[in-house]
Fold:
Amino acid sequence: MSKGRLAEKVAVITGGSRGLGRGIAEGFGAEGAKVVVNYLQDEKAASAVVDTVRKNGGEAITVRANVGEVEDVRVMIETTVNEFGTIDILVNNAGMLNSFRLADMSVETWDSMIKVHLRGMFLCSRFAIPHMLKQKSGKIINMSGTFGVSGGAEFTHMSAAKAGMIGFTRALAREVGHDGINVNCIAPAIIRTDLYNFMPDDVRDSIVGAYPLGRVGEVRDIVATALFLATEDGSYFTGQTLCPAGGDVMV
Structure:
């Protein structure tokens, strides 16, 4: 029997092959969860996450799926249940990052951002939640961001998507709370991942320098927040947006 705060729980982490998703998958695995590492393109990276979980004594599998496609998500959740028997935790982490001034943004760019964040979150939740309703328990954690609270210039598409995730979280939390399901959101600021270098150095340093804590966030900061919400420690939280953001946003 696995030991840890998530012993024997089954967790699906979308976008779990890198960055925050990888950190959360490995962190959940270290706490005893049976982890499903979703990926879209980098099978090698996803397999490396599974290897890490297994080396630490946990159980994990990879599942390739585009979270914006109905059939992909249906198969991902079916595979999870067939492999591990149920689904206890869903972390809607899959996302993308690019920036454009609105005057230069194509319709395709807008649609892609909305598809991966909002449609992806909807589809994964839609297929996972019947299993949670059946067992009268479950945790859904949606990975938003501070742009969803404060907005970001040249990130209107991402700001809209991330804000939509917060609204979805609140609505679903009210809908399924009496069924024993907690739905919460995490809204980080800039975190040191492989996407950290996306922004120009001067812009990034200026933003981080303005944070009250004066430092960039680390993956471990977000993993700790996700673990809190996924375990019994966070059992009285629902519909909430937690901001591990160095004080960038205060709610």
Remarks:
- The mean pLDDT is 95.
- Residues 107-135 form the longest helix (29 residues).
